[in-house]
Every structure is written in C-alpha cells, then in structure tokens.
Amino acid sequence: MIPLYHKPAIRAVQLEPLAPWCQFFIADQPPKIEQPTLWYDHAGLSLLVTGNSHPFRVDESSLVKRNPSGGGRAQPLSGLGKACGVASAPSVLDAFGGFGFDGLSLSLLGCEVTIFERERIVWLLLSEFVERCGLGVATHCRETMSFLSTNEQRWDVIYLDPMFPQRHKRALPNRGMQLLQNLVGANDLDIEECLQMSKSRARQRVVLKRRAKDEIIGHPSHQILGRSIRFDVYML
Ligand SMILES: C[S@@+](CC[C@H](N)C(=O)[O-])C[C@H]1O[C@@H](n2cnc3c(N)ncnc32)[C@H](O)[C@@H]1O
What are the start and end residues of each CATH 3.40.50.150 domain in the chain? Predict the structure, then answer.
C-alpha cells in the first residue's frame, strides 16, 4: 500500500477512490518521509519525495504552457502535435503516460486520448488530476507490452515516450521528469519489439520520441526535429 497523508478536513468520499491502493494517515502539514508518499490537501493529490519539502503536483499550468495557442514553450508541443497528426483529431494511445503532459496536451489539441502508465504511484497522480479537472481522458494502470500482445484493440496513433537512459549532463530535466527518473528507474524495454508491436495495433502511424542524437530505429517515414528531442514518425 502507498502511504497517503491528508489534512483532517479532507472528506472520506474524496479519499474513497484511492482506498484500494493507499493507506491513509492524518496530518496538518506534509510530513518528513523516507519513501515516495502521497499528500492530499484542498488542492488535490501531490507527491512527497525525500529531501524536498515542496509537494509535486500535476497541474494545468504545465499543459497550458505547452499549448501553442497559450504561448510559452510552444515548440515542443507543436512538434508533438505535428508528429501525431492532430489535425484529423485521431484516437491516440499514449503508451508510456508518465504524468501525462504529452497525452493530456494531445487531448487539449482535440485528440481522443487513452493513457497507459505502469507505475502505480505515477498513475494515481495522473488519474486524480484527470478526474479533478474533468479532462475526459481514459487512464489505465497497465503494462503496455503485455496489453498490446494480448488484445486486439486498435488506435489511429500510438505514441511512444519510454524513459530515456540517464546521462551525465549538466542540464537537468524539469522537476517532473527528474521525479519520474527517480521513481521509475532505468528503462527495461526492448524498443524495437515495442515499435513492431505498436505498428500492428495502430491504424495510421506510430510516433516514437527520442533524444535528438539517439540512433534511428528502423525506417521512420519522417522526423520532426526539436533542439534536444525528435519525433520519429512511422506511417502505416
Ligand atoms: C518518459 S516517461 C513519459 C513522460 C510523458 N510523456 C509525459 O509527458 O509526462 C515514461 C513513462 O513510461 C512508464 N513506463 C515504462 N515502461 C512501461 C511499460 N512497459 N508500460 C507502461 N508504462 C511504462 C514509466 O513508468 C514512465 O512513467
């Protein structure tokens, strides 16, 4: 069970959806903790990690910043939007959801999005955010490869953003990505196998997010290049 601390004023009905996975404790303030722990206050669910007193919350501002019409960091999202062909409002499986920044941004761009995330604590934060904001995105705590290999369900687009292997670089990724790296650890995925499997379950295209300098896998139809990342697009 994942420890979850909550303010005394939080009502049982708010906590009920989390009961199958969490053990509840009451606290006035986020406590000092020794393992990743959840915190629930008036603003919803957030994550407590050792060595940082500020809870991490998935919030809408991260998405708005990534929305081209909202200004800000438009480049990564317009790359993502182009790579996924959002103009035709496709159904998209975001097969490695994380905190959902990419998948939820695609939803804001008009796609019908389903998100899979394997790590329970990450999925809880994601699904609570999606519910709280009424974003209308289906999220599942699910291991992608075993689902795809045992189900015939199909999507127009399958979007793949597995963890990049950690590199010793001076520039750190943003806080959400640093937390994911700590929570989830190294990637154990066979990316080629995942790509093949995804091609057999997508109707229109598979999009693979890579670091700009990573090797190319197979034969993408085209690429959308960003400064530090790129999207390899495999049309079907
Ligand atoms: C790089 S992160 C995704 C970040 C995401 N695109 C975002 O915008 O927040 C990759 C995520 O995939 C999840 N993951 C890794 N292997 C998985 C698998 N086999 N099935 C489902 N999720 C997996 C990890 O737990 C991690 O949260």
Answer: 70-235
Q: Out of 94, 105, 118, give the residue to mutate to test ligand 1, the one with the largest number of ligand atoms within 8 Å of its CB.
A: 118
Question: Does the C-beta of 41 come closer than 6 Å to ligand 1?
Answer: no
Look up residue 95 and give its amino acid.
A
Q: Does domain 2-56 have CATH number 2.40.50?
A: no
d(CA 180, CA 23): 22
- Find out whether 99 and 125 touch, Cβ atoms under 8 Å: yes
pLDDT score at 98 = 94
| Full-model pTM | 0.91
Q: Tell me where in the chain the CATH 3.40.1630 domain(s) lie.
A: 2-56
Which of 96, 127, 182 best tests ligand 1's pocket when mutated (most atoms within 8 Å of CB)? 96
Which parts of the chain have pLDDT scores under 50? 68-75
State how far the Cα of 31 lies from the Cα of 133, in Å rounded to an integer.
Answer: 26
What pLDDT, in 10s, does the model give residues 92-103? 999 999 999 999
The highest-level CATH class for domain 70-235 is: alpha beta
